[in-house]
Known about the structure:
There is one protein chain. The protein is mainly alpha-helical. The protein is built from 5 helices and no strands. The longest helix has 30 residues, at 88-117. The protein has helices spanning 3-26, 37-45, 58-81, 88-117, 135-162. It has one domain.
Amino acid sequence: xxxxxxxxxxVGIVLFTIVIVPFTLRNPLVAxxxxxxxxxxxxxxxxxxxxxxxxxxxxxxxxxxxxxxxxVIAFAFVLKYFNGADTFREGFRDSYLIWLIIDWYDALxxxxxWFCHCRRxxxxxxxxxxxxxxxxxxxxxxxIGMLLGLPACIVVGMMTAIL
Length: 163
């Protein structure tokens, strides 16, 4: 692993934290789609959020989709022009490695340490729920995140080879 990938991973971690933490602290209900199912169901029962057929709202999908597009474009340019990645393989490999590092940071640090133990992000009426410490839920979500990163990083690899 090159020092550039390590630095880019650290920058990605900082940016990811800056985007996630303040919004969740300000209003935990903004991120309720990312909470364990029992907590989401309790929020519906308490009337804090509307019952819906899917886990995420349209706004959630748009927000996450825009973040994905920004990731793909930014990393294709960074890997091409700062790391000198010229091939699909280099672009895919480096972007997926960065993706994995940020994904694991999210699962282990933000979810299993911060989310599972921070009382400030507990939603009123759900504070005593044991599901706040559902580590397995966060690990499973990380595995899904690893799979979701594959198509995004394939696009980064293609863009790196084309640019």
